[in-house]
Amino acid sequence: MSVWFSASALAPQLARAWALTPAQAGWLTATVQLGFVAGTAVAALLNLADIVPLRRYFALAAFAAAACNLGLLAAGGFAPALVARFGTGFFLAGVYPPAMKMIATWYQDARGFAIGTIVGALTVGKAMPFLVHGLEHAGAAPVVLGASGAAALAGVLVLAAYRDGPYPFARRPFSWSLVGGVLRHRPTRLAIGGYLGHMWELYAMWTWIAAFLAGGAGFRPRAADVAGFAAIAVGGVGCVVGGRLADRWGRERLTIWAMSVSGACAVLVGLGAAWPALVLAIALVWGFTVVADSAQFSALVTELAPAHAVGTALTLQTSLGFLLTLGSIQLVPHLVAAAGWRWAFVALAAGPLCGIAAMQRLRGLRAAGMDSAPSGA
Fold first, then answer.
1. What is the dihedral of CA 87, 89, 90, 93, to 10 degrees?
2. Model pTM?
């Protein structure tokens, strides 16, 4: 997953080389999101995860994403770079969703922990380009080559060593005819609503936290990259802890807690910018909590959606969530231009606020025993 943020880590260099505006720099990540949505939709419509053996599907997608990422080195300008970034996101749709399905075949109990571990791994992977870029004298080539090499190695490892576990999933393909039923099913709709609130905050934080530390908190560029890596990568621990707590507390309670803390950090991190130690501490807490609940929204949908529509519900949830990130990623640089870094992240707190409201309603429904799907829905 390190290819996801390769261009984001290099954004300052690419902006200088190609004379990019902050909004254009944001599109280097936003286009990956768009490609991921397109790849997810194509995979769902063709039902690739059920037709192609998962280890081959994962490996081929990882190889293709690595190759597209290498296109950054040959791009030479903004438009070709966007094509490369779109391709990277498109093929990552064959890595991330299948990986969650693959690990879940090995767990019947504690799936919250298992899927949380997968999301934690992808979180650390996404952070890696910032660490490589933070090393002294690291230019574009080490970042891009390192990320593509890591993606290709992951494909080799899965192709050579992975086997499905003893708890396979029933085939639940995407169907347009089921979308209306999914959206009319209130518990599923609330779970998707909570996920959308979470996603509004998550990728904007990941995309811009290193830029904020450099431009708004006074960190030196290399230190900002390393601190940005830490703020994102600590979410890997957050995912594992979140998975454990979700299995103990319940998924709604965990998501409400995580969004409450991460939303508060979104408001506070800019206000602490004058004190580097304080802002780093807030950024680390933010990074820990902003993704700690991520896997649990997907788990909720698998539990709540009508059994015959689970595949459709998960595809719909993922596509809507990643499309929403396009707005928040692009909003941040406009807010920086208008009000400065001090207030730029405050708008991200709106996502957790709405997500908490959805989860509170869902928690009430489940407590009242109203979370089952209607017969024939």
1. 150
2. 0.92
